[in-house]
């Protein structure tokens, strides 16, 4: 992230500042919490930075940044402290708190230079919770929407390119979920349910890395149901777009075992897609 600080003379000065603040609050030789209300906004802010970057204590850092907001609510340091709260919460994997802080920043400073970063942090708070494919995809949809917001609202920002990349990965992730479920149904002979999942990938996620396999699995499922026209058409689409794919080789072999070949036949949803492919309107 872009540095939010003003001039900074290094960790040594920050460490000295922290030590001086603690000693100033000492009584009877026992260390106490620095008397923050006696310190400037910049000093408290730098204590937060020191806690985060040098001591690795994000909880303390958030507390210091929050105190800057509380004690100096209308200062430039309060603005900086608020975006740093969002960043620190995210770094500590407290994603809901990170979103809340980022949203407050956007509410208070919508035209600020760091508004794009606040919006990006909100998107990351969803994106970084996307784990393995088998988990619920609600967060993936939220990540896609939030990433789209960054791309559309701040297209010229330094975060737009990263948002585009992550958007593509999240989109691919959703297709992967459909494929996983489809393969599950296919292995258990629930061909109609499997076809429904693979159809979603072919129709809605055609730009992802899963399309070739989805077409091949459709060939498998349709052949298992005896629907040869649909199987041949799926293989024809696969051959038109992914002829070098091993999935096409497998589909071609499956059809060959029944004396069939890839070609558009019938009038199914796949035939309509095939016509679009030939016209260059799809993929």
From TrEMBL:
Its main location: membrane. The keyword Lipoprotein applies. PROSITE patterns: PROKAR_LIPOPROTEIN. The keyword Magnesium does not apply. It is found in: Cell outer membrane. Coiled coil: none annotated. It is a lipid-anchor. Residues 38-235 form the Outer membrane lipoprotein BamD-like domain. GO terms for cellular component: Bam protein complex. GO terms for biological process: Gram-negative-bacterium-type cell outer membrane assembly; protein insertion into membrane. Keywords: Cell outer membrane, Lipoprotein, Membrane, Palmitate, Signal. Belongs to the BamD family. Part of the outer membrane protein assembly complex, which is involved in assembly and insertion of beta-barrel proteins into the outer membrane. Part of the Bam complex. HAMAP family: OM_assembly_BamD. This is Outer membrane protein assembly factor BamD. It comes from Gemmobacter aquatilis. The gene is bamD.
């Amino acid at each position: 992230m872009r540095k939010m600080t003003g001039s900074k003379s290094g960790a040594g000065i920050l460490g000295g500042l922290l030590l001086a603040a603690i000693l100033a609050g000492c009584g009877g030789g026992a260390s106490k919490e620095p008397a923050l209300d006696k310190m400037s906004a910049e000093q408290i802010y730098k204590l937060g930075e020191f806690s985060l970057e040098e001591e690795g204590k994000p909880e303390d850092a958030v507390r210091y940044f929050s105190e800057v907001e509380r004690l100096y609510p209308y200062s430039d340091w309060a603005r900086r402290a608020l975006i740093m709260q969002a960043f620190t919460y995210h770094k500590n994997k407290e994603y809901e708190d990170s979103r809340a802080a980022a949203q407050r920043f956007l509410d208070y400073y919508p035209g600020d230079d760091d508004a794009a970063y606040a919006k990006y942090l909100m998107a990351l708070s969803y994106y970084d919770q996307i784990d393995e494919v088998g988990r619920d995809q609600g967060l993936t949809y939220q990540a896609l929407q939030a990433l789209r917001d960054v791309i559309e609202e701040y297209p010229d920002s330094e975060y737009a390119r990263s948002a585009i990349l992550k958007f593509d990965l999240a989109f691919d992730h959703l297709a992967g979920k459909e494929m996983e479920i489809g393969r599950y149904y296919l292995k258990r002979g629930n061909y109609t349910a499997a076809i429904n999942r693979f159809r979603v990938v072919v129709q809605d996620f055609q730009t992802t890395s899963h399309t070739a396999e989805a077409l091949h699995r459709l060939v498998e499922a349709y052949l298992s149901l005896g629907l040869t026209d649909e199987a041949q058409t799926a293989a024809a689409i696969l051959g038109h777009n992914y002829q070098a794919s091993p999935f096409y080789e497998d589909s071609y072999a499956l059809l060959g075992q029944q004396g069939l070949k890839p070609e558009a036949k019938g009038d199914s949803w796949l035939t309509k897609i095939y016509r679009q492919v030939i016209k260059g309107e799809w993929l």
